[in-house]
Amino acid sequence: EAGDHLSYMKLALSLATQSPPKPTNYRVGAVVVEVTTNEILSTGYTLELPGNTHAEQCCFEKLSEKHGVSASRLGEVLPDEVALYTTVEPCSHRLSGNLPCVERILAIGDKIKTVYVGVQEPEKFVSGNSSKQKLENAGIAFVHVAGLEKDILEVATAGHENPA
Ligand SMILES: Nc1nc(=O)c(N)c(NC[C@H](O)[C@H](O)[C@H](O)COP(=O)(O)O)[nH]1
Ligand SMILES: [Zn+2]
Asked: Are the beta carbons of 156 and 16 closer than 8 angstroms?
């Protein structure tokens, strides 16, 4: 079981390495998994889709495209037990003003049971990321998958002046 989590987080990390480096965000990778079958429903990495997109946002936009529903209605079409793996915890505020990913997760409702994160968001752009609290308040589990922190931060900050 724990092995599975690490393999999904490693997959998310490999996706993050495809993200074009940028000084104003993090290079993140995310994977949406159907828990009972271990089927990968969607993947995403920062800036994969047009616009200033986040990895988690790309996962959801691909799923809404596939199912022909808006991302906010994904709760109607997703299977009952879904997990999100993301190398950096979902944002709770974005300096661009775009909709934070924690709000995108909450809008999906009770289909996403667990969010697995590789690291907490560094304090560089936004301090006090509140996604853990928001998710747990909504009954969504927030689980840290340990072991890849150094690699995740190196990839995430590769576009910065002084990378991690
Ligand atoms: N979980 C997560 N996935 C991402 O794909 C990504 N880029 C961030 N980054 C969080 C960081 O707080 C925001 O990147 C800045 O606040 C700038 O906001 P924009 O990205 O320009 O909307 N966090
Ligand atoms: Zn985000």
From this structure: yes
Which of 1, 39, 48, 56 does the annotation list as catalytic? 56
Query: What gap in Å lies between CA 87 and CA 29, rounded to an integer?
Result: 6
Contact 63, 31 (CB under 8 A): no
- ipTM exceeding 0.95, yes/no: yes
pTM: 0.98
Per the CB < 8 A criterion, the answer to whether 29 and 22 are in contact is no
Tens of pLDDT, residues 12-37: 999 999 999 999 999 999 999 999 99
Ligand 1 atom closest to Cα of residue 124 = 12
Asked if 86 contacts 10 with a C-beta cutoff of 8 angstroms, the reply is: no
